Amino acid sequence: MASDAPAAGGRITPAGLLRRKGGVPIVCLTAYTYPIARLLDPHVDLLLVGDSVAMVLHGHETTLGATMDMMVAHGQAVMRGSSNACVVVDMPAGSYEDSVENAVASARRIVDETGCDAVKLEGGVTMAPQIAAIVAAGIPVMGHIGLLPQSVEKEGGYKIKGRSDENIVQLHADARAVEAAGAFSVVIEGTMEPVAAALSAMLAIPTIGIGASPKCDGQILVIDDAIGLTVDRVPKFVKQYAHLRDIVADAAAAYANDVRSGAFPAPEHLFTPDKDKA
Ligand code: KIV
User: Which residues are within 8 A (CB) of 162 and not within 5 positions of it... i.e. 6 or more apart?
Assistant: First the structure.
């Protein structure tokens, strides 16, 4: 676990977020690029370079399209564009599940090459050894339980969790395992509200909800969903705070019109010998 002191440059640390259990809700958003990180950084506590980048920016059908190279490149961009938020980078599917050795090597590569504050991986009881090993190597870990997008093919779709007694028992075991393994916080995704609320009350580490409960210690959304850039259907749990799709489409249409009509470029956009002397 990182020290309690703010990191050089004053970023919010994983240890600082751990201390916020039960306090003012922790504000989290995903970010994948330098300009978006710069815009979000002053307003949030945590920026997640989610493996959702594979779907949102690269057009893959699922997060299984994310690669280590992709996560590192986007992690570097978000680190360059932020100085306040705690930056967490997702470990892509295939980079940690098979052994604790691979998990530690992958986490180390992400942290060494991006300088991020922590990594996130999906899974509860079955991934507890990986979480414990990465934490023992000195790298803070955020857990992720409930609906696990990296398991979507195995599960045959995005299935909301916490509907059956058996699954609720499993979720409680997963939550306890992630905490006992040393994670500094845990994302609870796509889980029935009362179950997510109970998990949050049970754990001593902060819970970050997405499609979960207002009783979680923080909330996260995928940035493109939140600002209305998402091309496909937006899930029920998303609140859209802007509709940038319409703005971008209108701007593209206006530009096309100007180019076709000859209205752009206009004299003020041109370099001319009389106005632009060396
Ligand atoms: O990849 C991602 O964006 C995530 C969030 C949905 C929590 O894991």
Answer: 146, 168, 171, 191, 192, 194, 195, 196
